[in-house]
Design goal:
The structure is a single chain. The chain has one domain. The longest helix is centred in the first third of the chain and has 12 residues, at 2-13. The protein is α+β, with helices and mostly antiparallel strands. The radius of gyration is 18 Å and the shape is elongated. The protein has three helices and eight strands, in the order αβββββααβββ. The two termini are 24 Å apart. InterPro entries: Lipid_transp_b-sht_shell, MTTP, Vitellinogen_b-sht_N, Vitellogenin_N. Keywords: Signal.
């Protein structure tokens, strides 16, 4: 479950941008579906040898992003929906071949069906000036408020 939280937070953090003291929000249009692709690699033994001999996994996913609401007063206050689809988990090291624990297994068997379903549930993000303030309906059991983390 921690892996899912880290992957999700990596995705969220890619949305905030800062320009010389002023934070700029997303430039999403209403009634438009944005399709993105994300991938991250996790090395379990980084620094203990060559990268070719590393042990780890790669998680990739297609992500749909939709702007649901924007503050009409122009305060850069908006609500977006994020849905992950086609989640894939594979070995980071292609050379392992038959030794790979991922060989012949699909994502539900690797990260468990329950975790995969949780990852693919739609998530609502409340953004103010490009910063995530609240996550709703996420893989986390309750609403998270990020205002204390800034």
């Amino acid at each position: 479950m921690i892996l899912l939280a880290v992957l999700f937070l990596c995705f969220i953090s890619s949305y905030s941008a800062s320009v010389k003291g002023h934070t700029t929000g997303l430039s999403l249009n209403n009634d438009r579906l944005y399709k993105l692709t994300y991938s991250t690699e996790v090395f379990l033994d980084r620094g203990k040898g060559k990268q070719q001999d590393s042990v780890g996994y790669r998680i990739s996913s297609n992500v749909d992003v939709v702007l649901l609401w924007r503050n009409p007063d122009g305060d850069d206050d908006q609500l977006i929906q994020i849905t992950m689809k086609d989640v894939n988990v594979e070995n980071v090291n292609e050379q392992r071949g038959a030794k790979s624990i991922f060989k012949g297994k699909n994502p539900p068997k690797i990260i468990r069906k329950k975790n995969l379903e949780a990852l693919q549930r739609p998530v609502l993000l409340h953004l103010i000036h490009g910063k995530v303030k609240v996550i709703l309906g996420s893989i986390f059991s309750s609403t998270l408020n990020f205002s204390s983390f800034q």
